[in-house]
Design a protein that fits this description.
The chain is α/β, with parallel strands linked by helices and about 425 residues long. The chain has helices at about 10-30, 40-45, 50-55, 80-90, 105-115, 140-150, 165-175, 200-205, 235-245, 275-285, 290-300, 305-335, 360-370, 400-425; strands spanning about 35, 95-100, 135-140, 155-160, 165, 180-185, 215-220, 250-255, 265-270, 340, 350-355, 370-375, 390-395. It has an 8-stranded mixed beta sheet, sandwiched between helices. Strand 4 and strand 5 (about 165) form a beta hairpin. Bound molecules: 4'-deoxy-4'-aminopyridoxal-5'-phosphate. InterPro entries: AspAT_Ic (IPR024551), PyrdxlP-dep_Trfase (IPR015424), PyrdxlP-dep_Trfase_major (IPR015421), PyrdxlP-dep_Trfase_small (IPR015422). One of its GO terms (molecular function) is L-aspartate:2-oxoglutarate aminotransferase activity.
Length: about 425
């Protein structure tokens, strides 16, 4: 197909008229499709309905150590949950705390505690610095950025590549500024870019010289077993940090939100023993017990890592046709037009579309006008501002397949129209 950049003005005008007509045709169909967030589909949630039967009014609600899960008790997780999720995170049983129902809750809590009290080894709370800062690889996750803004952490954007953040820049930044306290990392199938950190990036993150001795990597491993096409094993960051002599550098987060039921999962924070002890003391102030009934339900249903991996294959079977639909439509409709590029993730929950600069907002608006709600343009960047106005997060997991196909057709027409408009305005 001819790149739009090679078309004459008259050809672009004609194309514009045709694309406007196409969009009007879709608009007349009265579509109402919402792809704004990366939610699991109903089919995925159905996979774990049996979990609701494994703990019921006839069940023994005692954990392995005899604790009555219906009551207040050990706040760091019941033994069988600690064992299963320590294996899931690849850590020892005394290097993990099993707590809330969503990892965002833990990420947010961990940031708030650091701002109020500091972390192990802090001279003072992060919030007592004049301009405490956090490194934010972009494109990244809007919730991470929202947390930083809320707690008063200045965000420093760093480009993210397929194999991880630009490490030359990260090393330079952290070496020179004691008020840079931490960094977001989504090491595997990152939201939304699908990046998987290479061994080199991981070692450099673990080894780098930080001016702040209380610097922490917030290792949000939300998609560690979430393969769709092909696995990309990523090194265990706690092991690497220990190996290079910086065992306390990382907090690792995970949850079962994208395994069982989203927002109703079990979630965990893992770290060195020293960090874990420190975190446990802080949690003791916050609560006298997390939802142990949910832990019990999860462990009795999931049972083992082998079972979790089998369940993840069922998720992949549901997600693959959806990702095929998105990538297939882009390949068919957009290849060779010079109107952007897109990621080809092997797992996770998202595809990222990189539009012709200056077009992302217009594309999202055109889709919204046609009944297709996408994640806001700019959500992939700190403060919601993408300086190039290029990145769009596509979340294919939630809509039924037929709706997703329709939405992607609308998206492609919107991409073409916005690109033609841009070229005509140039
Ligand atoms: N972290 C990342 C990177 C995510 O993409 C998501 C889900 N969109 C979450 C955390 C949320 O997970 P949870 O439901 O466990 O809070």
């Amino acid at each position: 197909m001819e790149a739009y950049q090679n078309l004459s003005r008259a050809q672009l005008e004609a194309l514009k008229a045709r694309l406007e007509q196409d969009l009007a045709g879709y608009r007349a169909r009265g579509l109402s499709l919402n792809m704004a967030r990366g939610k699991p589909s109903a089919e995925q949630l159905d996979l774990s309905m049996e979990m609701l039967d494994v703990v019921n009014s006839k069940s023994d609600c005692h954990a392995e150590d005899g604790a009555d899960c219906r009551n207040y008790c050990d706040i760091y997780g019941i033994p069988e949950a600690i064992r299963l999720f320590a294996a899931y995170m690849g850590v020892e049983e005394d290097e993990i705390v099993i707590c809330g129902q969503s990892s965002l809750q833990l990420l947010y809590d961990a940031l708030c505690r650091a701002m109020l009290q500091g972390v192990l080894g802090s001279d003072k709370p992060w919030g007592k610095y004049e301009h405490p800062k956090f490194i934010c690889p972009v494109p990244g996750y809007d919730k991470h950025f929202g947390f930083c803004k809320f707690v008063g952490l200045e965000m420093i954007p760093v480009p993210l590549r397929a194999d991880g953040p630009d490490m030359d820049l990260v090393e330079k930044l952290v070496a020179g500024d004691e008020s840079i306290k931490g960094m977001w990392c989504m090491p595997k199938f990152s939201n939304p870019f699908g990046a998987c950190y290479s061994d080199e990036v991981i070692y450099r993150l673990a080894r780098m010289q930080c001016a702040a001795k209380d610097f922490r990597l917030f290792w949000d491993n939300a998609y560690s077993y979430h393969v769709i096409y092909k696995d990309h094993p990523v090194l265990n960051m706690l092991d690497v940090c220990k190996e290079v002599g910086n065992p306390d550098r990382v907090f690792l987060f995970g949850s079962t939100s994208k395994i069982t039921m989203a927002g109703s999962g079990v979630t965990f924070i893992a770290a060195s023993r020293a960090n874990t002890e420190f975190i446990k003391k802080q949690y003791a102030v916050q609560t006298v017990g997390w939802d142990k009934m949910n832990m019990l339900r999860h462990v009795r249903y999931l049972k083992s890592m082998d079972n979790i991996k089998e369940l993840m294959k069922k998720h992949a079977a549901i997600l693959r046709p959806r990702f095929d639909a998105v990538l297939g439509t882009f390949d068919r409709e957009l290849t060779g037009l010079g109107v952007g590029d897109w990621t080809r993730p092997d797992g996770g929950f998202f595809v990222t579309y990189m539009a012709m600069p200056g077009c992302a907002k217009r594309i999202v608006q055109l889709c919204a006008d046609t009944g297709v709600t996408l994640t806001n343009a700019g959500a992939t960047h700190p403060g919601g501002v993408d300086p190039e106005d290029s990145y769009i997060r596509i979340a294919p997991t939630y809509p039924p397949l037929e709706e997703l196909k329709a939405a992607m057709e609308v998206f492609c027409v919107a991409v073409k129209l916005a690109s033609v408009e841009k070229l005509l305005a140039a």
